[in-house]
Structure formats: structure tokens, C-alpha cells
């Protein structure tokens, strides 16, 4: 037992000392990103919310963007505005200007009241999108994303090793949870580390695990599929009658609401010049995890408006549902504002644990040095 404890203690110590700053970086950046869309206007006043008394025409936004970028033949991904808001942000996912980068779409924001382009920027060139890339990929593309996934697993291991070291013997729970204010400075530091670890344990375990699943889908998806098959993503195409004009985005959204009155559309992919590309709408059904990026998707014929496919809660396997919960859990949005606040605060946990852990390690080193001096 003593040898096992020594091994766990060594593992816990060197995970903290070796990777503590990395955990702190991921935690602090994650805390800020919980509210990154709310923070963006702090850095760019053009993105400040603009109220609108009338619903915004998404087709007018499409027309404004096509007029501003006639050379771009690929489609648009448009984030639908909240009710009463006028600004609409769209993405050209693979602009030629950022070819070769892991993820760097062109973001274009339109004032839907007057169909005017008000802001353009590339992903990664603004403070919050740069921070997003730092958190998600360490600015290193796919290799960085995999490294972050490994960091998530190591964070889980660090927290579990700390839990094992702290776990009290039977009948000593009250003592294990106490914070001794009148104790020595060394003991108070230990108690701070202990209390912070126990308080943050559930949140950091979830953040580390979900970060690993999201960051390394090539590994996580086969593992999930081993327990429950993952549904294949439909790839429908529009009618081959290319002579028909493209149905407006507003008409497609109206058909969606008639087909599923309780659904809330969040994103719409508007096809470009490919005659067979369909409309793709990401929508939220009651009970779907997530809000900004819900898991349900519907495809519509770009010329007739016919429903081509639906991937919703009824079509989801247990594996699909598990995977769909990863992003809402990681960002906290699966539990509304309260969940986001919990995740935001939880992201501060690695900083508290790193500081108190380093302080505790320094105390132990000094005590060991004094014992050596006395023995000499």
C-alpha cells in the first residue's frame, strides 16, 4: 500500500509540475471562451448587438454577401440571429486567402435591417478567434488539436491520482474535508489544495474527458462505436433540374417551421453554384443538447424545398446521443446559463491547483533540505 501511494504521489506531482502551466493555459482560455461571442464586441464595436423590431430576412443577407463577394462560388454558413437582433454573421468556410490553414474561414457580418455589410475578418485574426484556436489547437493545426486531447486525458489522470491520494479512511471523512485555519502555513496550503481539488473535481473531470473526445475524433469515435454504433451522416443532393432557380433561404426556413413547428433553426448552409448542393439547416428540437450548435440537422432540396433527409433525436443511436453531449458539456451550454457559469469558474481550477500544488511542493523541498542539513 505504501509503495502504491508513493507511485501515485510521484505521478501526481510530476503531472502537476510538468504540465501545470499547460493545464492553466487551457483552463483560463476555456473560461473566456464560454462567453466568447458575448466578449467579441469588446474588441470590435462593429459587432455590438443591434436591435431590430422586424424579423431579419436571411435571403437579403445572402444577396448582400453575394453582391460583396461575386467571385466566391462556394456556399455560405449563416448563423441565424436571436429574435429581435439585426446583425447576422456568415462564414465562407474555405476562402482562397487562407488555403492550407487548418481552420480559417472568412467571417462576414451583415446588418439585416438594410442588407449592408458591416464587418469582415478572418478566423484567427481577431482576439477571441485567436484565443479559440489557442485553446483548441495550440495554433498548431491538427497536431495541436490531438495534443490538446492528450492533455485532457492527462488532466483526468492528474485529478484521479489526487483523489486517490486524498481518499480518507473509513470514519475520517469530516477530518479529510476540514480546512484548518489555525494550522501552520504549510498545513493551510495543503488544505487549500485539497479543498480546491475536491470542489473542482467533477467539473475538471468532465472538461478533461470531453476535451479529449472532441479533440481526437479519429480515436474517440471508434471507441464510442464499439459500445453503440454511430449513425452515418446523410449526404443528399438537390434535384438535377438545374434550370430551376434556387429557392430563397427564407422560403426554406418557412418550410422547416411548417414541417417541425417546435424546432428552432440555428444555422443554415446556403448552397453556392454547385447545382446539386442542398440547403443544410442545423436545428434544435426540444430536448436536444446544445443551443448554438445543436445536434439535429435537416437537408432541403435547393430548388423544390423538399425535405431530403433529417438527422434528429429519433434517428440518433445511444452512441450518437453520447457524442452529441460532448460539446454542450464542455462549454456548459447543455445546462443553460448556469452550466456556462459553472464551466467558466471551473476553468479557473487548474490555476488554483497549480499555485497551491507548487507552493506545497516548495514547502516539502525546504523541509527535506532542513532534514539533510540536520543529518549532516
Commentary on this structure:
It is a single chain. This protein has 376 residues and is of the alpha+beta class. The chain has three domains: 2-34 and 143-228 and 344-375, no CATH class; 51-125, Nuclear Transport Factor 2, Chain: A (Roll); 249-316. The chain has helices at residues 2-33, 36-43, 58-68, 127-137, 141-166, 173-177, 185-215, 217-227, 249-259, 318-324, 326-331, 336-346, 349-375, and strands spanning 76-79, 87-92, 106-111, 116-122, 264-270, 279-284, 296-300, 307-311. α1 runs antiparallel to α4, α1 (2-33) runs antiparallel to α13 (349-375) and α5 crosses α7.
Structural class based on helices, strands and sheet pairing: alpha+beta
Sheet with most strands: strand arrangement? 4-3-2-1-5-6-7-8
Instruction: Give Rg in angstroms.
Output: 25 Å
Shape: elongated
Total tally of structural domains: 3
Q: How would you describe the oligomerization state of the chains in this entry?
A: single chain
Element string (H = helix, E = strand): HHHEEEEHHHHHHEEEEHHHH
Largest beta-sheet characterization: 8 strands, antiparallel
User: Which residue ranges are poorly predicted, with pLDDT under 50 across at least 5 consecutive positions?
Assistant: none
Count of β-strands: 8
Question: Which percent range fits the helix content?
Answer: 40-55%
Overall mean pLDDT: 91
Question: Number of DSSP helices?
Answer: 13
N- to C-terminal separation? 31 Å
Strand content: 5-15%
